[in-house]
Amino acid sequence: MKPTRGFAMLLAVICVLAQTATIFADANFHYHGTIVDEGGDPLAGATIKVVDQTASRIGSGTGLYVATATTDVNGRFSFYIDYGTYDLTISKEGYISQIFRYSGVNVPRIEVGNVTLKRNVLVTMSAAALVASPGSRLTMSVQVSNGGSAEETVDVQATAPEGWSAFLKNEAGEVKSLILKAGATTSLNLVVDVPVDATSGEIELVVSGRASVTKTLTIVVEGAPTSIATCTYPSKIVSPGGTISYKVAITNPSGEAGVIMLKTMGVPSGWSAYFLNDDKEEIDSVYVQSASSVTVTLRVQVSSATAVDTIGSLIVTAQLGERSTEVPLALKVEQRAATIELGAKYPSQSLKLSVATVYPITLSIHSSELVQLSADGVPEGWSVVFKTQDGRQVNSVLLEADTTESINVEVTPSLSSSQGQYSFTIVATGETEEGNLALTADIVGSYSLVMSLDSLYLQTIAKSSEVVTVTVTNKGYSPLTNVELALSYPDGWTTAFTPMKITTLAPNEKATFQLTVTVPEGASPKDYLVSVQATSGEASATVQTIRVTVEMESSWSIYGVVLLAAGAGVFVLIYKKLKRK
Known about the structure:
By secondary structure, the protein is mainly beta.
């Protein structure tokens, strides 16, 4: 039987549909890139695992594995795959894996570019080069981190030039290997002993796990051998019958701990000189760890019969084994009054309500006295306390003759204080003398703005709008004014928020904005970022980012509807023609 003309037309339509389906099924996209390490060198043998995340094919879920590629000797990889959205997991033994998402839509060539994989084991040194004295010991901090997701056993080794010594240690002693849990960091000390006749050298630090890391420390040796004893202020002035103190730093430059003997020579008749430790105990030697320093006090008591303008010369000798250092000291006798001197580097500061602010001050006197500390003219409700450098609260301090003591004055304004400038006086009262110091405080309030979003991730399609609720809270002690949102979003997008502005936000008060984000027509299916920040005339909140995933409408459904409509039209025409016949 010969086919009718209408049947032939129907067959033609079916062929067009089949050909169109074949075109879309055969669509391929070329992915290619290069994998390198932190130094930019290519990584051969790295794997690229490809997982299909195309919603139109797999729906929602964890994706579908489809392929694996491997880098060549030049670190390059290349593969072809159908259009869609894919996760590329790039990994290599001993390196931290990375995951990237790409969408191959109307882009026949996907350039992944250079991808850098970092080693699981990371090594950080506090310096790459140091200057040292001949015969000294250096100690430098080294941190070893495991940036991977599994526990690592690593070996550590320090290699030094001939005649040098280098090793790594922690609080327990020398370390040659260690176990690092995933994400953990441990601190070690790299210890280097420099020979007396050295000029320069390089220390090579190698940390080996599933991948190895090498770091180099360059040491330049300059100057004379390190002194055992030094004094920063070797010349002082004292009154007849007064007491003076010298701070002497004692250093052990050798490679082993040892006892350093102390002597004082040239003490004038009728004077006395002796060494004290931190507990004010008299000593004649000090035990010092290798490459470490301690400070001792040389106390000199001048005879009251000493004539004014007398100049005394003393020599401190510090001896460690066969090695010794002499430190000359000078002392001039003058008639001086015992006056307490107070000083502040920052006598005027800006303070926030109910927030403690520290004024570092210094006190000094020419004779030893117990000094009481107090504050006059302090505003009502304010708190003023005195603390030592290690945080102990005190009301008095024993000042040694001709020494300087550092004290922190901690000032806390009351919540009821008004903005403006306030002044008060620190008073130091000794047994015979008094000193004072004026301090100024400018009250500027206490401002803190906190922002939260009810969603940081949106899924949508082109030509649609999504709404996010933004909550702002005044966490400070003072009102905030003109609170509004600052936004950053992709070109072509539109945003709007209501209200436009909050004129006043009281302490502990909350308010909300309704933020509308509109995706333009034609937006490509991929992830976009919208940045949000709440600001006011006094403070700003931390910037937060909303990730907006624009999904692709199903191409097959669109084309299917179009083609079915076309097919239906053809059938109608055929039917009408056949009916007329």
